[in-house]
Amino acid sequence: VVVNESVKKRTAFIKVSTEMLGDIDFMRSEINNELSERLGLDVDDQILNGNNVGQNLNGILGQSTAFAAGTFALLVVDPNLVDVLTIAANQIVIANHFPTVHVVHPTDLTALRLIKAGAADGAYVNRLQDVAGTLTLDGIPVVENTGIAQDTFLTMDGTKDTVFSKGEMTIQVGLDSDDFTKNMRTVLIEWRGLNRIKGNDTTAFVTGTVSTAITALTKP
Question: Residue 103: which H helix or E strand, with range?
Answer without folding.
Answer: strand 101-104
